[in-house]
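Per reviewer request, we include the raw input and output of the structure prediction for the construct analysed in the revised manuscript.
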Amino acid sequence: MRIAIVGAGSVGGTLGKAWLKRGYDIVWGIRNAADPKYAGLPKDRIKPPAEAANAADIVVIATPWSSTEEAVKSLGNLANKIVIDCTNPLGIGPDGLQLVLGFETSAAKQIASWAPGASVFKTLNTTGSDNMSNATMYPVRPLMLVAGDDAEKEACRDGLGANPRI
């Protein structure tokens, strides 16, 4: 099973490296692979975003919210794929960092509208990448909640194991 991670910043990079160590088949979808900030990623696992998503069973969205719509729409047809939404719909407003969607919808619902036919699951957005990269330091294994729109696919069990380690 191949997992494409769209975005390789702190969250996408951390998740991908951790899953690679545990034997998952990871590929990153990155627009500009020559950017020096991606120097720590295995070059053979960097693809253009649409190519990465097309060849994957699971697509992880780990982009800043301001780039998410463009990123998701650039991936092509995601129908019948599991999409894991790691985003937080935050932006800079007059009072600093703020929620940009309000309270009538969610980031996952927005992503589902941009990826018709995909099974969208929200998770891995409630802790920082530092906690993810140091998860083994905790005396009790950290827990990440999952919410989704497809009970039959049960993304965590079918895709990454009942409680995947990062």
